[in-house]
Write a structure and sequence with these properties.
Helix content is 68%, strand content 2%. The protein has a single domain, classed as Hypothetical protein af1432, CATH 1.10.3210.10. Strands 1-2 form a two-stranded antiparallel ribbon. It is mainly alpha-helical. It is globular, with a radius of gyration of 16 Å. The model has no long low-confidence stretch (mean pLDDT 92).
């Protein structure tokens, strides 16, 4: 990887999430991605593959170009969601961050990504942020639609949410 591509990928970690909402503590893309990797480490029966962890750490880096479009907007507009997916896929290919995940690994990644959103929202709610409750509730509905990928995910879900709320 050349230095320009590295700099782009490295700097993408600073992209702000939840920039359209009032939040007590802003979250960077780097913090979000780290959270997903930690969730994966907690729910996988065996240590997650290097490919899965790299996918977790890089899955949103295209947001350095697209910005972080709020999840509720993507959930409400399939055309927008598809366009962002296409832009992300192109960015990932151009920057050499495409990983060969099994269907199960992809399911784990999606589940962990949504669960990390829920955990962030729960922390905000705990600090009195009522504006983020609708995103939290929509995230829980989305997570439920995925089902629990394994018993570890279900245990983590109930344990952490009980602690946070």
């Amino acid at each position: 990887m050349n230095l320009a591509k590295f700099a782009t990928l490295y700097n993408a970690g600073a992209v702000k999430r939840y920039h359209t909402m009032r939040v007590h503590e802003h979250q960077s893309l780097a913090a979000h991605s780290w959270g997903i990797a930690m969730i994966l480490a907690a729910i996988c029966d065996e240590p997650p593959s290097g490919e899965l962890l790299l996918a977790a750490l890089t899955h949103d880096l295209a947001e350095i170009e697209t910005g972080d479009v709020p999840a509720p907007m993507k959930w409400n507009d399939q055309d927008l969601s598809d366009s962002l997916y296409d832009a992300g896929t192109k960015f990932d290919r151009e920057h050499g961050i495409v990983f060969d995940l099994s269907d199960q690994e992809y399911q784990l990644l999606q589940w962990a990504d949504t669960f990390e959103l829920i955990l962030f929202c729960a922390a905000e709610i705990n600090m009195g942020n009522k504006a983020i409750v609708s995103t939290y509730n929509r995230g829980k509905i989305r997570l439920k639609s995925y089902g629990f990928p394994n018993h570890n995910a279900e245990d983590l879900f109930y344990t952490l949410l009980k602690e946070r709320l």
